[in-house]
Amino acid sequence: MASLIIRPADFEDIRFIVEVRLASLTEDEIRGYSAPEYAIYSSIEKLRKMWDRENVLKDGFEVIVAEDRGKIVGFIAFKVREGSGYIDNLVVGKEERGKGIGRSLVEYVEHIAEARSCSLMKTDTTENAKRVPWKAYSFWIRMGYKDTGERRPTDYDFKEIPLVKRLSSMEYQALKNGS
User: Fold this and answer.
1) What is d(CA 10, CA 13) in angstroms, rounded to the nearest whole number?
2) What is each CA distance from 24 to 108, 127, 155, 163, in whole angstroms?
3) Within 10 A of 108 (CB to CB), how many other CB atoms are there?
4) Which is nearest to 113 in space by CA: 68, 158, 170?
5) Are the beta carbons of 84 and 120 closer than 8 angstroms?
6) Contact, 160 vs 126, CB < 8 A?
7) pLDDT, tens only, 48-94
8) pLDDT tens-digit profile of 109-147?
9) Are 51 and 57 in contact (CB under 8 A)?
């Protein structure tokens, strides 16, 4: 996708981020896999209240968008602290899936995490009461994330599945490449 641009989001992107989120998943699809909808990415008002500066939310999460020909087609929210990164949300528009946008967003934030001396990236997905993982599970496995084997109970009828990935050390890569 030659026209794809991955960049930090800005305040002007809020409406488009919410539009992508609302168009990408229906309540019926996520029922049994997610808490009742309260996510800030589903409300322009909530997301505006959470926005702090540049592409950073008040809780420290950074938002990155994927833009194709001037249209926001996906976004990712992540945080880096104490030597590891955490991906909280990854959303790609339904009509844009399968084009490498999710992979591009994840790789972009992994590179940011590595540049900030992180050696580990974390995320999670869920499984429903029947122990069926959410459809993103296979994406994360293909991206090199490992299932920790843990299933964390929630206040709802699903469990969280923690996933982790060791990032290649930038110093190791520099030595390996003879830099």
Assistant:
1) 5
2) 21, 19, 25, 23
3) 17
4) 170
5) yes
6) yes
7) 999 999 999 999 999 999 999 999 999 999 999 888 999 999 999 98
8) 999 999 999 999 999 999 998 999 998 999 999 999 999
9) yes
Query: 4-176 has which CATH code?
Result: 3.40.630.30
The separation between the first and the last C-alpha atoms of the chain, rounded to the nearest angstrom, is 30
Both tokens assigned to 174: 């520099």
Integer angstrom CA distances of residue 140 from 19, 70, 74:
24, 27, 16
Residues 6+ apart with CB under 8 A from 95: none
d(CA 64, CA 89): 10
Q: Which helix (H) or strand (E) holds 113?
A: helix 101-115
> Dihedral sign, CA of 1, 39, 165, 154?
negative
Count the residues in the chain. Answer: 179
pTM over 0.85: yes
Q: Are strands 84-92 and 120-128 parallel, antiparallel or unpaired?
A: parallel
Query: What does the block give as tokens for 112?
Result: 């940011």
Q: Where are the domains of the chain?
A: 4-176
Strand partners, 92: 74
